[in-house]
Amino acid sequence: MHELGSDGSGRSAVADAAWWRSAAIYQLYVRSFADCNGDGVGDLAGVRAQLGYLAGLGIDAVWFNPWYPSPMSDAGYDISDYRNIDPVFGTLADADALIAEAHALGIRIIIDVVPNHASDRHPWFRAALAAAPDSPERDRFWFRPGRGPRGELPPNGWQSIFGGPAWTRVTEPDSSPGEWYLHLFAPEQPDFNWANADVRTEFEEVLRFWFDRGADGVRIDSAALLSKDGRLPEVSPDEPPGPQHPYSDRDDVHEIYRSWRRLAEQYQERVLIGEIWIPDAVRLARYVSPGELHTVFNFPYLSCPWDASQLRAVIDHTLALNGPVGSPATWVLSNHDVDRIVTRLGRPDTAFSLQRRPYFHSLPVDLELGTRRARAAALLTLALPGSVYIYQGEELGLWEVQDIPDERKQDPIWRRTGGADPGRDGSRVPLPWAGDEPPFGFSPAGSVVQPWLPQPKEWRDLTVAAETANAGSMLELYRAALAIRRSEAALGDGPITWLPSATGVLAFQRGAGVCCVVNLSAAPVPLPDHSGLLLASGVLDGQLLPPDCAVWLRTADQAGTPPR
Ligand code: NOJ
């Protein structure tokens, strides 16, 4: 375990057990962050080379999307070895060095753990394929005979979340057509059977492996899906997740996370973060009840349209559910599965849902409007109580790349829906670092291999180099906001008080010293009483806050409260 260093910002070098309650967490999609060896794919050496950038941005922790050995059928969410690093990203020694170097800069490391499914190349699944029906090897997954006279039909009608049936038939070692196995995602991602003791033990050992190497927490992929009803009842598409659902948000999944929490408590300050896409916020809150996960992603906030009353309702609802269980809220504007925020907020319909991505992609986009709103959304999000996630590239104002040529698309969602769903590649395009043309410093100068997804040439204006020291850039807005958020004790975890405001305006007080006002209406609004301007997302018109603009105001006479 490495000691966390002091970053000179007033943050203590002494371990802070509650760091996660206020943390600004950067989501780092390794494939697209920085490519050090010139193969067109980001790698851990690229991350190590840019740790200074992350420290300078002012984040507290980095969450890495999966970095394990994987055939990459789902960009690393198909893991063949949970205790190593994929060669395309580097080595275990690189990960160790990265963790140590990040810790020295005061940055904590959160890794992605994928417990619902493995890769079909995982040794356990290969052993299951080689073994007989009803064997202990097959019991670690969901193997079942097919229906129909010759077992030619899948065991039931469950559908994959990526499109098509959730079952694939295997060929038995004697070459006969055999059993079927369950995969809630792609066929290359067989689901584990969490009723099997080997599976439970294995994942506890995987957690220990990474905690022992210094990981500060885990993001748990598809955390509500682990438990399945072994009777395999049919499910209708409108069956809500919950105890009656055959595989989503079943009650006994909580037992797994209680045992993980006990394990995490044996280490110091390790956090468990759940990725849970269920619409029922009351059921969501159960995952963060005492003795379970520390936090869950706030997808209702991520999906909320740019509308003051709807945002206010989501914020209030989130706080009302988190408060009683003592868990801090989380706030997230985007990630590697959803459309980038600039694009979403530039559409005539600013909501988002995974199921309706084709519709959202059919809408026109006003990038200038989307950028203006995304700046305001950043100040809103960073001012809310709790922890916050920043998806790489959000700090540069990158947009969703909606015109990736079909032959360059990689996402299994696009393939498995026959192109009906454009998929998630548009939010995963490699970062632009510097220069006037692709690869914009993503790969080293002189690299002959193109980045794994093509970058728009317009991103020349959105490179880290172009935005640095540019007062009106998204990057400088994020840097300034994160610096203030860190130095103001009132921001991060803590109380919030709504202030009276005009229709279409969100205004709230954080502690005694800071107030945030966001104008989502169509008309300029007067600023409330204040003693100074801390930060604005756009240019103010005297004492008026223009539409789609946000400010942080100093509301105390003195310099506010001391830094935390
Ligand atoms: C959720 C992850 O965020 C997504 O990228 C992945 O495809 C699915 N889980 C399956 O692992």
Furnish the topology, listing elements before pairings.
Layout: E1 24-28, H1 44-49, H2 51-57, E2 61-64, H3 92-104, E3 108-113, H4 123-130, H5 136-139, E4 143-144, E5 167-171, E6 177-182, H6 197-212, E7 217-220, H7 253-266, E8 271-274, H8 281-286, E9 295-296, H9 299-303, H10 308-325, E10 330-332, H11 341-345, H12 357-361, H13 367-383, E11 387-391, H14 412-416, H15 464-467, H16 474-487, E12 497-498, E13 505-510, E14 514-519, E15 525-526, E16 532-536, E17 544-545, E18 549-554
Parallel strand pairs: 1-2, 1-11, 2-3, 3-7, 7-8, 8-9, 10-11
Antiparallel strand pairs: 4-6, 5-6, 12-13, 13-14, 14-18, 15-17, 16-18
Helix pairs in contact: 6-7, 13-16
Bound molecules: 1-deoxynojirimycin.
1-deoxynojirimycin binds near residues 222 and 336.
Give descriptors for this structure.
564 residues, alpha/beta, 8-stranded parallel β-sheet, 16 helices, 26% helix, binds 1-deoxynojirimycin
Please sum up the structure shown.
With 564 residues, the chain is an alpha/beta fold.
In words, what does this structure look like?
Helix 3 links the parallel strand 2 (61-64) and strand 3 (108-113). With 564 residues, the chain is an alpha/beta fold. The two termini are 24 Å apart. The chain contains 16 helices and 18 strands. Helices cover 26% and strands 13% of the residues. The strands form four sheets. The chain has an eight-stranded parallel beta sheet. The chain is globular. The protein binds 1-deoxynojirimycin. 1-deoxynojirimycin (NOJ) is lined by residues 74, 77, 114, 185, 221-222, 275, 336-337.
